[in-house]
Amino acid sequence: MKVTPWEKVKLARMSVRPTGLDYIEGLLDDFIELHGDRYYGDDPAIVGGIASFNGIPITVIAQQKGRNTKENIRRNFSMPHPEGYRKALRLMKQAEKFHRPIICFIDTPGAFCGIGAEERGQGEAIATNLADMMVLKTPIISIVISEGGSGGALALGVADRVYMLENSIYSILSPEGFASILYKDSSKAEKAANDMKLTANDLLELGVIDGIIPEPAGGAHNNPMEIIDRVRSIIEKDIKELIGLPEEELLIKRYEKFRMM
Q1: Residue 46: count of CB within 10 angstroms of its CB
Q2: Which helix (DSSP H) or strand (DSSP E) does residue 201 occupy?
Q3: pTM for the whole thing?
Q4: Are the C-beta atoms of 117 and 111 separated by less than 8 Å?
Q5: Residues whose CB is less than 8 angstroms from the CB of residue 213 and which lie 6 or more positions away in sequence, other chains included
């Protein structure tokens, strides 16, 4: 039976879906988490560090949701502050220095839009990530594992390969926000989801992503190890291809990829 866009929104938001840390634990060895942006503080909404993937040293960055209210409050419901994006960029530049590929797991309803975040330069932090990721001289693979909302998701999405899980979503903002702005009625979120072209199939057709990772029947949460194995296969294939490219060719291909959108 065909799953509607609104049903995929609800699937993407399920608290039982595997989180960024689940993928880190299932895919990587010897993960060492690194903290702080060296300007303001640490942001638990973004987890990052160094690890090993099939013996290859890599840098991993993940937006992290909680399983319950207490965890979600600690992780700010996976809505990063500017220090989270600056931490992510610090780790990316460290990866470039030591020639480590970067793997990003995207899962956020959007960047936090509170007063403190705006005072500390939320828009600038996101824009800097977009610009600097475009010219990082190391391979980048980004995977939308659940929600990919607005600039908060794009700040980790400028990559050589971008994938979405089958029941994930990737959009300019939430369906509720879209409905509030366009229809002046947030209760029309289901209609908005149908109009926004936010599903993996839509975005593959539009050329925004490079591929769709199929989920087990009913969603990734029904068989986490199966989806982790499928993600592993994708990363194995792409890392081998991308690390073999000269730096100049890697950058040209990344530029051309986003220039065509």
Answers
A1: 28
A2: helix 200-206
A3: 0.97
A4: yes
A5: 143, 163, 164, 165, 166, 227, 230, 231, 234
